[in-house]
Design goal:
Residues 239-260 are annotated as: Disordered. Residues 1-22 form the signal peptide. It is built from twelve helices and no strands. By secondary structure, the protein is an all-alpha fold. The longest helix has 60 residues, at 2-61.
């Protein structure tokens, strides 16, 4: 009976050690596989950001040849599988369309503001994929200033109030056009299109208000659309959607094209390293316990007495 119990204990200890080591090997292999994937993504991200910066700088300096070369490189880099795995499908459609528009703009003489606009759009888009704090989110303060300037245009008594209002709205449109692609890569399409639709409604409200004779009704209509535009901007910049690859399309309209996956850390986090260390230590301790148990079992089997043996009379007297 004691033999059976002892053998069972030894076998259980060996199985625990084996399973613990196997778990460690599986976990370690998974960590290395993820690290390799993250390393590939990080390398592509660094290269894409560098090319986008070169494109923007060349366009800003009017160097059309260098800008066009960087544009072709950016187009090639953006088609890599690990790059397209991030962002949203709607965002990538807008990105590809902006690439084609930029090619036409750089091919023209002079290319001017249109080429610079597309370079800025593409740079913000690439930055949105790889930065933890994307540059396009800094446009929130710019948009708030544009909205306040737009509201002041009809609050203050101008000689040509509608022209001032439309001019202020046009500034808002220009800024919104710059971060449009980046927003589509990070936000649900519905939030971006709603903001754009409200700018169109604001233009219609301004034109309608110019033909209205009642100042009170005029201001009330403009205030209503302005408030909706303000709320839409807050939602657009404050949205925190769940990460999702571009290939998947959610079923709910409110969750369409959520935020992209970003570069993950290239080294396993502290919790994973601590778990691996704990499992190795546990396996080592279990090995020692198994060895001690085996010694006890062998002694009892050979001597027919409990382990360790009882002390001799001389040892007890001492």
């Amino acid at each position: 009976m004691r033999k059976t119990i002892g053998a069972t204990l030894v076998l259980a200890a060996i199985l625990m050690i084996t399973s613990g080591c196997a778990s460690d090997w599986v976990r370690t292999a998974a960590v290395h596989e993820k690290s390799e994937s993250y390393a590939n993504t990080a390398t592509s991200g660094i290269k894409a950001i560098r090319i986008a910066d070169e494109l923007y700088d060349a366009a800003n300096k009017g160097n059309r040849q260098l800008a066009y070369t960087a544009l072709i490189q950016l187009e090639r880099e953006s088609k890599r599988t690990e790059v397209r795995a991030m962002g949203t499908s709607k965002g990538w459609k807008a990105f590809d369309a902006s690439i084609q528009s930029a090619k036409k703009a750089f091919a023209q003489k002079p290319n001017g503001e249109e080429a610079y606009l597309h370079a800025a759009r593409l740079r913000l888009a690439i930055d949105a994929l790889y930065r933890s704090s994307p540059l396009w989110l800094q446009y929130q303060n710019v948009v708030q200033e544009d909205l306040e300037r737009l509201r002041q245009a009809w609050v203050i008594e101008w000689e040509d109030r509608s022209s001032a209002e439309l001019a202020a709205l046009n500034v808002l449109r220009i800024h919104a056009e710059r971060f449009e692609v980046a927003a589509l890569l990070e936000r649900p399409e519905a939030d971006v299109t709603h903001f754009q639709e409200l700018m169109n409604r604001m233009e219609y409200a301004i034109v309608y208000a110019a033909k209205s004779s009642g100042a009170k009704e005029r201001n009330r209509n403009l205030d209503r659309v302005w408030l909706e535009l303000q709320n839409s901007a807050d939602m657009l910049f404050g949205d925190s959607s769940v990460t999702k690859p571009a290939s998947g399309e959610p079923s709910e309209a409110a969750a369409t094209d959520p935020a992209p996956a970003r570069i993950m850390p290239l080294v396993p986090d502290m919790a994973a390293r601590e778990q691996l260390a704990t499992m190795f230590i546990a396996a080592f301790v279990m090995g020692i316990l198994a060895f001690v148990g085996w010694q006890r079992y062998k002694f009892e089997e050979s001597h027919g007495a409990s382990y360790p043996p009882p002390k001799s009379p001389w040892e007890r007297d001492a």
